[in-house]
Design a protein that fits this description.
This protein has one domain: Glycerol-3-phosphate (1)-acyltransferase (3-Layer(aba) Sandwich), CATH 3.40.1130.10. Helix content is about 35%, strand content about 20%. The chain has 6 helices and 8 strands. The protein starts with 10 loop residues before the first helix and ends in a 6-residue tail after the last helix.
């Protein structure tokens, strides 16, 4: 089966959508960010947030100054219109059901990092509302084994209030891939940090 073609991000479109998302989400969510200085102003990194609802993505996009790339599930790219739109926002498709199709994704991912870009990967792979999922180490292992970069865990907490939901995005300290001989140890550290940054103490 043919691997999907990776389309390029459009900063003009991404900028407009970011402003629209901020305007749309502000009446619903009261956002606070801690650890924003852990995101480097320049250079490559992999941001690894907790994933519990679709709003995670626009909230991350509006809370971080740099424009990022996002690993997203293949199903979002099956429609021609949504494929173009998500790609313009920085989406990169990942097919977990058919890993053989991910050759272009993996190549594009390493290229973005080599170019000094930031990439968002949700290690859990899908939504987990009341707990931290076990996670999928495959993509993190691939990155760790193929290049030296920074891995930055992040927690997201949603706290329902009377009129708006408080959202706390807690960005942890960067982990240097070169400090970990084995990707299993790196992945365990990442998931442990995501758990703590999300308010879980005994996950």
């Amino acid at each position: 089966m043919t691997a999907p073609v990776i389309l390029e991000r459009n900063l003009f479109v991404a900028g407009i959508v970011r402003l629209a998302a901020k305007a749309f989400l502000s009446p619903i969510f009261r956002l606070s960010v801690s650890g924003a200085n852990n995101i480097p102003q320049k250079g490559a990194f992999v941001l690894l947030p907790r994933h519990q609802r679709w709003e995670d993505i626009p909230l991350i996009a509006t809370s971080i100054k740099r424009y990022l790339y996002y690993i997203a599930k293949q199903e979002l790219f099956d429609n021609f219109i949504s494929k173009r739109f998500i790609a313009m926002l920085g989406g990169i498709p990942l097919d977990r059901k058919r890993p053989a199709r991910n050759r272009n994704t993996c190549s594009s991912l390493l290229q973005k990092l080599s170019n000094g870009e930031g990439v968002v990967v949700f290690p859990e792979g899908t939504y987990y509302k009341d707990k931290i999922g076990h996670g999928h180490p495959g993509l993190i292992r691939y990155i760790h084994e193929n290049m030296d970069t920074l891995f930055i865990p992040a927690g997201i907490e949603y706290i329902r209030q009377r009129y708006r939901t408080d959202v706390r995005i807690n960005i942890g300290s960067a982990l240097k891939g070169a400090d970990f001989k084995y990707s299993q140890a790196l992945f365990a550290m990442i998931m442990g940090q995501i758990s703590k940054l999300s308010g879980f103490r005994n996950n």
